């Protein structure tokens, strides 16, 4: 069910009301290996909510942001689908999962059932929830869409070829960082800061942002809590970015994270 991609519609909720008070707009739910970050390789169930407050040009989950679609599933249905797989880890992702009130109730249910919970978030929204690993991916200037942006890899910002409207770009640029939310996430949860790196030009912004987060919180942010992840949704693109990003991590003392799922399964759906 397609949802308005107007950046004014930030919730991903479409015109139809949810069928139950405790329903979430779910784009996909699947079993795979965690592909990114310090738990890379761990079998996990992925619950992907629809709707995002940002519009990264490179978004690998286009059908949750630029052109959101979903089915409404209530918490009982989501938990039953999660339990159908033999996994101890659940990854709540999106879109932006922390947009939705009901994500907290889902995390409560998963925590009570004994699951390890990871939340993949862009770091612009803080919520109090049982999160075992906050996998926070603050968005850099290089994520902002523009009418003429063509990634270094030759990918256009919108796979459907539609031009990017300037309102989406302006909204993205003004909303992509919220230092208070970021500091609160870092303060409260075991956190990894996972930056999508398009090239060496991203490094000064990463260094500055890490310092600002350190200044804003009493929690320790070790260099190895800062992860550099190469931009790319296909093996071919990653072939052009991963070595550069690995060298940048080595040079700076940050951690490198692969995109294991892309290396293994390229851009296959449900991986
Ligand atoms: C689709 S996002 C969903 C969660 C949240 N909206 C966020 O951005 O963190 C999941 C992860 O994929 C990363 N990601 C999205 N597109 C990417 C791309 N083209 N290359 C590398 N990582 C990407 C995001 O930075 C984030 O770490
Ligand atoms: N295998 C796999 N690992 C992932 N880690 C974070 C993902 C995400 O889209 O949030 C993701 C994903 O989509 N697939
Ligand atoms: S914040 Fe995450 S889901 Fe939203 S557009 Fe960017 S990568 Fe996609
Ligand atoms: Mg993904």
TrEMBL record:
Binds 1 [4Fe-4S] cluster. The cluster is coordinated with 3 cysteines and an exchangeable S-adenosyl-L-methionine. Binds 1 S-adenosyl-L-methionine per subunit. The keyword Iron applies. Gene3D superfamilies: Aldolase class I (3.20.20.70). It catalyses: 6-carboxy-5,6,7,8-tetrahydropterin + H(+) = 7-carboxy-7-carbaguanine + NH4(+). It is an enzyme of class 4 (lyase). The keyword Magnesium applies. It comes from the Archaea. Residues 1-23, 142-173 are annotated as: Disordered. [4Fe-4S] cluster binds at residues 52, 56, 59. CDD domains: Radical_SAM (cd01335). S-adenosyl-L-methionine binds at residues 58-60, 95, 137-139. InterPro entries: 7-CO-7-deazaguanine_synth-like, Aldolase_TIM, rSAM, rSAM_sf. Signal peptide: none annotated. Keywords: 4Fe-4S, Iron, Iron-sulfur, Lyase, Magnesium, Metal-binding, S-adenosyl-L-methionine. Residues 11-20 have a biased composition (Acidic residues). SUPFAM superfamilies: Radical SAM enzymes (SSF102114). GO terms for molecular function: 4 iron, 4 sulfur cluster binding; carbon-nitrogen lyase activity; magnesium ion binding; S-adenosyl-L-methionine binding. Substrate binds at residues 33-35, 48, 93. Its cofactor is [4Fe-4S] cluster; S-adenosyl-L-methionine; Mg(2+). Mg(2+) binds at residue 61. Pathway: Purine metabolism; 7-cyano-7-deazaguanine biosynthesis. Residues 39-267 form the Radical SAM core domain. Homodimer. Belongs to the radical SAM superfamily. 7-carboxy-7-deazaguanine synthase family. Catalyzes the complex heterocyclic radical-mediated conversion of 6-carboxy-5,6,7,8-tetrahydropterin (CPH4) to 7-carboxy-7-deazaguanine (CDG), a step common to the biosynthetic pathways of all 7-deazapurine-containing compounds. This is 7-carboxy-7-deazaguanine synthase. It comes from Halorientalis pallida.
